[in-house]
Amino acid sequence: MNIYADPAFSMATEQFRVIADYLEIDEKLRARLLLPKRTMAVTLPVQRDDGSISVYHGYRVQHHLAFGPTKGGVRFHPGVTLGEVAALSIWMSWKCALTGLPYGGAKGGVTVDPRTLSARELESLSRRYMQEMIPFVGPRTDIIGPDMGTNEQVMAWFMDTYSVYQGHAVPEIVTGKPVTVGGTAGRREATGRGVVYLVERALDVMKLRPDKCTAVVQGFGNVGGVAALGLAFKSGMKVVGLSDESGAFYREGGIDVAAAETYAKKHGSLAGFTEADPIPSEDLLTLPCDVLVPAALEAVITEKNAGKLRCRILAEGANGPTTPEADRILAERWNEIFVIPDILCNAGGVIVSYFEWVQGLQSFFWNETEVTDRLFRTLEQAFSNMTRRARAAKIPHRMAAMAIGVERVLAAKKARGLFP
Ligand code: NAD
Q1: Which residue owns the Cα nearest ligand 1 atom 16?
Q2: Which residue has the CA at smallest separation from atom 27 of ligand 1?
Q3: Could you give the angle at which helices 368-393 and 82-98 cross, rounded to 10 degrees?
């Protein structure tokens, strides 16, 4: 029985198989490289405001320990499964290795729709999750961060629960926490900022001017929201399409992203936004545009729509937005679409999380300019390594990025032996 059986895990497995074949990795080493080192499943009872008890399932998966501790976010979403969490931990590993961070990948999740919980219930669930994880995580073993459905406040509850248990403040146990409790300047914006930086680098390579380009962004949360604002106001692009869970919107002349953000903050979502035309959600990704940023869920670019994408740059803000079948189609369209694969495109979050962890360990904090400069330098190195390798070996960007990541993990495992 495969305890990880799940479409996302199948995606991660198939992507790995392609790279392992390409790198001619010995069959005997493959299971060791792919399968997570440790997995924990917990049951989380929460007392509801009406006095009843709801029971949720929570997970944490640590993929490999070859470089040091593991690192990864915790997702609160109704679609969370153990297999999805495992897939996300594997993608984190290749991402950390590609960007040169001393971490293996990890991920956590709770199968819950956080919008159905009151603030007190959310706090109770968050604290209970961290309480159950205490024997399993630590600033030198596994560092937690935010992902879909969790935020700075949830990280503060995680940190507090862990710290109460230790008897002193342990800010290094989580990243993405508020600056007031040891968070870093620039963490909230890091992933979206990284997306914008890499889009500008891709435009540069393609000799396109950002202010002449259009963009479409799927997802309007932490990643999609910051990316959309950056593409509009920093790069000067016309953002013609936007979406969130409630629906999709289009405006040929450009959407006022700041107005959309104000609206979504006030109403909780874009539902009812009138400054753009509602369109069917499934049409968003195939809108004509220069830059397409999927920044919501996995597996949204499939064999059904990959041939219909009408963008010049696909900037994967989300984790795993493109299925392996769609990837084969995109590989054939390599001269039409410049793919910035997820493990590079959304790496800004974990890079600045790494900076936050380092600052916490040293109790020595940097200002936002230092954080952002170092973020861009780290991304630049990974971007140029990926594009150089892709050009030299005549392979797609995803394959080049994954090959660099997988090779680094393999080299560390070989150097250390069987344990990690
Ligand atoms: P978030 O919870 O802040 O926002 C998610 C957004 O996606 C929301 O606007 C939600 O309404 C929207 N959404 C959900 N389902 C949708 C659907 N079916 N169609 C359109 N929109 C939909 O989450 P986030 O932190 O922005 O994460 C988004 C993606 O980026 C995830 O894949 C996550 O793993 C990845 N990611 C996040 C970070 C980070 O630092 N937050 C870092 C790396 C990768």
Answers
A1: 245
A2: 148
A3: 90
